[in-house]
Amino acid sequence: MTSFGESSEFSLGIEEELQIVDPETGELVSRVDEFIGEVKHIESNLRKELFQSIIEIASDVCEDIDEARENVKRLRGELFDYCEDKGYELMASGTHPFANWDEQDITEGERYQEFVDKLRWTAKRELIFGQHVHIGVASKEEAIFCTNKIKKYLPHLLALSVNSPFWQGEETGLKSTRIRIFDNLPRTGLPKEFEDWKDYKKVENRLKKGGSIDDITMIWWDVRPRPDLGTIEIRISDLPTTLDESISIAAITQALTYRLSKIYKEEREDLYPKVDQEIIKENRWRALRDGLEGKFIKRENNEIKEVDVADEINNLLDQISTEISELGIKKEAKKIREMNNKRYTGAKRQLEINERTNDLSEVVKELIELTQP
């Protein structure tokens, strides 16, 4: 019998993959080793990643969104202060506008070397930066239910968070280039529809026995259960630049999980019937391409029709209004609705800066300013 870790229901943790940047050139710099062990009072909240130009901050387990906001604000602030003393800056974005992946230094360590050995060229191109949100749930079966049902809304979260319109100095035409780069890895994208926890464990154990993975952290789906932590982990979002955007997207993720958990406990699965995986995949593609300015497809009365992404997100906010109120995240929901109604995303911001300045280094400078808490 597989154990499921204990966590407070609907507690949340937020992880942000930040870029270490030279303020003069705007280029990424390989300096993560200077952080680990030096910023001692937040050392337990810092993580290395594949490239030495990335540092991840991981919040404490927070009971509500206000605690999470203060926690992430403190972590961003402490790192900014340390960076300035060392002559570097931090930047939050889904990709770097012009850095080259083949010029980055790989972080030393057996885990990272094994990652490159197994995944080769695809691993070396993973110069991308995401937001991961953990939400506490009560049991493994509830985790599977929420994992299955939240998939329908992953394109909505992606559309809100898109923040990577540039790749190696080029405008890609995609609002989230990050997610397309990430999709080159195995075990990414949408997970299958699991029948129950036993079905999920079959998939995990098959990958372990086949030598593909050592543990769940080597499965990189857009959403995955984390039995070791007692959470589900939503991983689809580009890293938002501003603290307010990051916290607001995390808050909506929390409210959506809370809503699904109540439905699970009330055995009202009819409120969220199974959705065609192909429709979710198509909407995921449309979200990464167009962000809030595009259209989703949906099935109504056995017919497929196109609908505005922004309208669907407003409908979602209406559906979870009770949970928004109960969790005390009205301020964050208001922020999301404002972004949505203006069709304003991080990707749109970057494109506007570049159009105004015709200089990607200016994009970096403005993003650095906006990343500060």
Automatic annotation (TrEMBL):
Q: From the Swiss-Prot or TrEMBL record, give the protein name.
A: Glutamate--cysteine ligase
Q: Any idea which GO molecular function terms this record carries?
A: ATP binding; glutamate-cysteine ligase activity
Catalyses:
L-cysteine + L-glutamate + ATP = gamma-L-glutamyl-L-cysteine + ADP + phosphate + H(+)
Residues in coiled coil: 58-85
First-tier enzyme category under EC: ligase
Q: Which organism is it from?
A: Methanohalarchaeum thermophilum
Q: Which InterPro entries match?
A: GCL_type2/YbdK_subfam (IPR050141), GCS2 (IPR006336), Gln_synth/guanido_kin_cat_dom (IPR014746), YbdK (IPR011793)
Task: Supply the Pfam families for this chain.
Answer: GCS2
GO terms of biological process kind: modified amino acid biosynthetic process
